[in-house]
């Protein structure tokens, strides 16, 4: 009875003040536990979370806001004042720089767009992206329970290392990944009309580093490794990674691939491949 009286008092206060909408607390608990380390990495890896609250019936955006992860308490709890009703909450982290949200006014038109130039080439920025969708969020003035927002990482680090055999000349190395995963819906899914983009690598002098969006078994992602004028590998990225055995593309987000160029006859070289420390294949490549 007391709780109900409090709600009615708040509602009548909104009317008296002439406000069109009343806002009430939405209690959230942020985390990032879906990872190989099996612990909450929220404060270690995320910095800013953008929130988009949509009306469940109409799909229209009601309110947006952002959360400074560093300012959250250790338990990740946060209280946000929002309009009453039944809602859907969309959260993104890592937006800014290479990622941007567009058409956020309606949940079915909102997209996350990966930045690329006119040739659909993505620069080698080491920036990551997280997403979470929470449905059936009820805000009615009562003290609601905390809604858990356990963020899921959508990006992956690909670390490619070309190892030259003793006596072989160290030629320039070029590594890239092509994939149609540059456009996401508010629901966190790759859209069917996502463009086929080319991720280029960052050369550390010893390794080629790439950060790509979500990959999965059977997708169209392709890895290209060129040494000098010689194509060392050009084929499915995920098939190569999956050959390492215990790989979970939803959970894993860091993949190390080594191409070991062995003694060369002058016309061809033997290549051995390791993925995450597992030796997965051997083959020969003709040299130009």
Task: Give your account of this protein's structure.
The protein has 288 residues and is mainly beta. It has helices at residues 2-16, 42-45, 237-242, and strands spanning 23-31, 48-55, 61-68, 77-83, 85-93, 99-102, 111-114, 121-122, 130-139, 147-150, 152-153, 155-164, 173-179, 183-185, 197-200, 202-203, 208-213, 222-227, 230-236, 254-264, 268-275, 278-286. The chain has a six-stranded mixed beta sheet with strand order 16-17-12-20-21-22, with no helix packed on it. The protein has a five-stranded antiparallel beta sheet with strand order 3-2-5-9-11, with no helix packed on it. Strand 16 (202-203) and strand 17 form a beta hairpin. It is elongated, with a radius of gyration of 24 Å. The model is unreliable at 1-12 and 15-20 (pLDDT under 50).
Provide a quick synopsis of the model.
The chain contains 3 helices and 22 strands. It is mostly beta strands and 288 residues long.
Key phrases:
288 residues, five-stranded antiparallel beta sheet, mainly beta, six-stranded mixed beta sheet
Content-based structural category: mainly beta
Alpha-carbon distance between the two ends: 84 Å
Low-confidence stretches: 1-12, 15-20
Please tell me how large the radius of gyration is.
Answer: 24 Å
Oligomer: single chain
Q: Helix count, per DSSP? A: 3
Apparent shape: elongated
Biggest sheet descriptor: 6 strands, mixed
Order of helices and strands: HEHEEEEEEEEEEEEEEEEEEHEEE
Q: What's the helix and strand layout?
A:
Elements: H1 2-16, E1 23-31, H2 42-45, E2 48-55, E3 61-68, E4 77-83, E5 85-93, E6 99-102, E7 111-114, E8 121-122, E9 130-139, E10 147-150, E11 152-153, E12 155-164, E13 173-179, E14 183-185, E15 197-200, E16 202-203, E17 208-213, E18 222-227, E19 230-236, H3 237-242, E20 254-264, E21 268-275, E22 278-286
Parallel strand pairs: 1-10, 8-15, 12-20
Antiparallel strand pairs: 1-4, 2-3, 2-5, 5-9, 6-7, 7-14, 9-11, 12-17, 13-15, 13-18, 16-17, 18-19, 20-21, 21-22
